[in-house]
């Protein structure tokens, strides 16, 4: 039986779906997870009754740990290529969605987890000091590709992105609010109610006007990836299969395990 990585609950009375990521222990984004996520987004996009999506997590304390490192370590170039296509597809479906997308960030959200959040239209994060969010790729010895970087620039601006990406910064909730990485903080118990109430404000705007405006803002980056999608895959495969990069990933995974012990 196929495993489910996400639960989708559609409320037909409001036209809002809640996608809960549910892949313990850390909602890491594996090839299967990403494939299922993109299919779910596609189905909601095709559903004329669905106007908005709230993205959140069922896993305690974690929104998403980002890309599943085990999908990039010790794998064949073919596997790495298939994995990267799935990462691209997830981003294209989320960043390019015509629906209103709100991230209810109820836990830590490094790297690919942060990419998911900043690909949404609005972010509300639980105000808990131990949670963090950011594109920390350089800390793993890897490089966030241009479409991660440009999504971040569109969210927090050029200078803050440069600072944030070079240092691989992870922000706690008040810092994330200050830099503009999230739009609002909320307590754990009120997070979903607040997300629904923000959604109602966005739903009040006529869809066609909001959708054209959103597309105008995001299309240049999306088109740039679409134009060079296969080159981006080959670039990733070449980079990630290098011995030096594989070594960095191995050391990072060992560090994660040691931290636990
Ligand atoms: C020139 C450029 C050209 C092309 C581009 C090329 C390249 C590359 C771009 C790649 C972009 C990459 C994006 C990413 O998302 S990489 C992933 C980054 N993620 C992280 O750094 C997060 C790491 N994890 C953590 O910090 C913590 O786990 C977390 C999320 C804060 C939770 O902490 P905690 O609750 O204490 O849980 P544990 O750390 O004990 O973890 C439990 C368990 O999960 C394993 N794990 C954690 N994160 C991941 C992960 N991302 N992938 C796979 N597995 C993960 C961890 O090892 C533990 O495993 P165990 O077996 O010990 O139980």
From TrEMBL:
<dbReference type="GO" id="GO:0006635">
    <property type="term" value="P:fatty acid beta-oxidation"/>
</dbReference>
<dbReference type="InterPro" id="IPR029045">
    <property type="entry name" value="ClpP/crotonase-like_dom_sf"/>
</dbReference>
<dbReference type="GO" id="GO:0005759">
    <property type="term" value="C:mitochondrial matrix"/>
</dbReference>
<comment type="function">
    <text>Key enzyme of fatty acid beta-oxidation. Able to isomerize both 3-cis (3Z) and 3-trans (3E) double bonds into the 2-trans (2E) form in a range of enoyl-CoA species, with a preference for (3Z)-enoyl-CoAs over (3E)-enoyl-CoAs. The catalytic efficiency of this enzyme is not affected by the fatty acyl chain length.</text>
</comment>
<dbReference type="InterPro" id="IPR001753">
    <property type="entry name" value="Enoyl-CoA_hydra/iso"/>
</dbReference>
<dbReference type="InterPro" id="IPR018376">
    <property type="entry name" value="Enoyl-CoA_hyd/isom_CS"/>
</dbReference>
<keyword id="KW-0276">Fatty acid metabolism</keyword>
<keyword id="KW-0496">Mitochondrion</keyword>
<keyword id="KW-0007">Acetylation</keyword>
<keyword id="KW-0732">Signal</keyword>
<comment type="similarity">
    <text>Belongs to the enoyl-CoA hydratase/isomerase family.</text>
</comment>
<keyword id="KW-0443">Lipid metabolism</keyword>
<protein>
    <recommendedName>
        <fullName>Enoyl-CoA delta isomerase 1, mitochondrial</fullName>
    </recommendedName>
</protein>
<keyword id="KW-0809">Transit peptide</keyword>
<dbReference type="Pfam" id="PF00378">
    <property type="entry name" value="ECH_1"/>
</dbReference>
<keyword id="KW-0413">Isomerase</keyword>
<comment type="pathway">
    <text>Lipid metabolism; fatty acid beta-oxidation.</text>
</comment>
<dbReference type="GO" id="GO:0004165">
    <property type="term" value="F:delta(3)-delta(2)-enoyl-CoA isomerase activity"/>
</dbReference>
<comment type="subunit">
    <text>Homotrimer.</text>
</comment>
């Amino acid at each position: 039986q196929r495993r489910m990585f996400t639960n989708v609950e559609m409320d037909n009375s409001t036209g809002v779906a809640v996608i809960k990521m549910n892949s313990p222990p850390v909602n890491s984004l594996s090839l299967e997870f990403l494939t299922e996520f993109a299919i779910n987004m596609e189905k909601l996009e095709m559903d004329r009754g669905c106007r908005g999506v709230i993205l959140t997590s069922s896993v305690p304390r974690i929104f998403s740990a980002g890309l599943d490192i085990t999908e990039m370590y010790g794998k064949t170039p073919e596997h790495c290529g298939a994995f990267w296509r799935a990462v691209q597809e997830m981003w294209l479906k989320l960043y390019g969605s015509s629906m209103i997308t709100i991230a209810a960030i109820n836990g830590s959200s490094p790297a690919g987890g942060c990419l998911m959040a900043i690909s949404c239209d609005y972010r509300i994060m639980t105000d808990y000091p131990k949670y963090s969010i950011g594109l920390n790729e350089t800390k793993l010895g890897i490089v966030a590709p241009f479409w991660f970087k440009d999504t971040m620039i569109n969210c927090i601006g050029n200078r803050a992105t440069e600072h944030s990406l070079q240092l691989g910064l992870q922000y706690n909730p008040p810092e994330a609010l200050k830099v503009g990485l999230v739009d609002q903080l909320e307590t754990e118990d009120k997070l979903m109610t607040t997300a629904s109430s923000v959604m109602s404000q966005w739903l009040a705007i006529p869809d066609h006007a909001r959708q054209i405006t959103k597309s105008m803002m995001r299309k240049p980056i999306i088109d740039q990836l679409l134009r060079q999608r296969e080159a981006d895959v080959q670039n990733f495969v070449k980079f990630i299969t290098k011995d030096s990069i594989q070594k960095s990933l191995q050391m990072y995974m060992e560090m994660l395990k040691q931290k636990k012990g």
